Amino acid sequence: MAVSSTSKSLFQNLKRFIKKPWEITGPCSDPEYKEALPKVQEYRVFCPATPNQKPCVPTSNPETVYDIKYFTRDQRRNRPPIRRTILKKADVEKMMKEKTFDVSDFPKVYLTTTVEEDYNARGGGYQK
User: What pLDDT was estimated at residue 89?
Assistant: First the structure.
């Protein structure tokens, strides 16, 4: 027993004088330096799944509580559902036979006049 305590005290004395290379200079050498890594007892004192106290949920009349949920106030979701119809090939052929195209169905032509070119320009409009 005496041998182990002697070797332990000798080891502690040597540990005081022999330092790790990063503890000699730099920020780790400052006596006020605190290691960033927490010790085992400090790291996660209690498990997040089992909190030490029960949460307190306030309750009130449902009419007086403001609803903070987004989806209930979202107007994009209040639209009626989109009606979808599935067309068979026979239906499409029938619709195409009934449809006749008129000139007014198409957009008007935007270019109705001819372009006038300046023939008096030097080199026909291009510079040489």
Answer: 94
Rg (CA), the chain: 43
Q: Compute how many other C-beta atoms are within 10 angstroms of the C-beta atom of residue 118.
A: 8
Residues of the chain with pLDDT under 70: 1, 67, 71-73, 117-128
Neighbours of 88 (CB within 10 A): 8
pLDDT (0 to 100) of residue 8: 83
Burial of residue 67, with CB atoms counted within 10 A of its CB: 0-12 exposed, 13-18 middle, 19 or more buried: exposed
CA 50 to centroid of chain Cα atoms? 29
- Do residues 1 and 9 lie in contact, with contact meaning Cβ atoms separated by under 8 Å? no
Residue with tokens 């989806």: 71
Report H helices in 1-111.
Answer: 2-17, 21-24, 70-73, 89-98
Phi, psi of 43 (to 5 degrees): -80, 120
pTM: 0.22
pLDDT at 78: 75
The amino acid that residue 49 corresponds to is A
